[in-house]
Each structure stands twice: as C-alpha cells, then as structure tokens.
C-alpha cells in the first residue's frame, strides 16, 4: 500500500475523477454510433467489448476494448501527473468501480476486465503486460474468455509481488475480489460446465 501523502480533499477529488472517467459506457455509446441497437437487448446484455462483438461489428468491439481500457489508464495517468501515488491507486480503483456501477446506467455496468487491464498497464506496465499475457494464455488453452479474465485478475497479485510492485498488492487484492464478484454468474456456469467457449454463442 502506498504512503498516504495526499490530503482528504485531494483523495476525494481523484476518487470522483476516477469514477467519472470509468463510468463512461463506451460500449453503449459506440453501439449507438454504429447503429447496432441497445446492448441490453443483445447477447448477455453486458456493456463490454465481448457483448459488442456479438453484434458482428468487430471494429465497434475493438474500439470498446480500447476505450474501456483507456479510461482506466487515463484515470491513473492523470492522477500520477497531478497527485501522489495514493491518489493514483484510488483513481484507478474508482475508475473500475465507475465502469461496473455507472450512475448513468442505474449502476448496472460491465464486468471491468478491459478497464482492469488498462489500470495495470498504466499503473505498473510490467504487471499489466503479464496480466494480459496470462489472460491470453488461459483463454487460448481453455477456450473460455471469462476463465482467462479470472486467471488474469488472480495473477495480478502474484505478478505485482514478483515484479517488485509491492505497494500495489492491496489494490491488486481489491480489484481481483471485484472481478471475481462481477463474474459470479460465469463462475457458476464454469463449475456447471455450461460456460460458453470462445466462438460459441452464450447460453441464456
């Protein structure tokens, strides 16, 4: 955990900024721009890139992935430019919370995987790259996207420790817990053997 050097006012400010950035529902926005309809009525109803991909528009899905990761990275980089490391980690955390619970969508947001990875790539890029590679390896081997995301989240704690970013361990634990919580339904389907594999349509 980083030293608490920032004032309470600064921490509140960066928490609000982080949440505001994270709460922008790029998937919903891009779906409208591309004329893809309401994501709530498509596939899983999720606002993330995976569900945008179910519309068949690969460009919209790729842009959603980039923008969702970018807003997490932006929160971290902005805070790092103007504030201390405690505010940086808080801004990153709140960007994730904003994505999962955006006020604009009645607090019904996404699962936060892209935002999670964006946060780590900006906060500690070696950890971020390691998490991305972990997701890729797990997804390729097991052919289940959500399982890859869970492996990437869980591995962040290990990577942060191994790669010398011990001050981020507390944040890694909190983000990992949130990712697992948001994937509760996926975990239940994985255990039941009904979670769709990459390339298959998700069962309702």
Architecture overview:
This protein has 204 residues and is mostly helical. It has one domain. The protein is 68% helix and 0% strand. It has 10 helices and no strands. The longest helix has 25 residues, at 58-82. The model has no long low-confidence stretch (mean pLDDT 91).
Keywords:
single chain, 204 residues, mainly alpha
Q: How many alpha or pi helices?
A: 10
Spell out the helices and strands N to C.
HHHHHHHHHH
Gap between N and C termini, in Å? 41 Å
Class from secondary-structure proportions: mainly alpha
pLDDT average, as an integer?
91
Short description:
This protein has 204 residues and is mainly α.
Give the SSE layout:
Layout (H helix, E strand, L loop, with lengths): L7 H15 L3 H8 L15 H5 L4 H25 L2 H16 L12 H11 L1 H18 L2 H18 L6 H14 L1 H9 L12
Helix pairs in contact: 1-4, 1-5, 2-4, 4-5, 4-6, 5-6, 5-9, 6-7, 7-8, 8-9
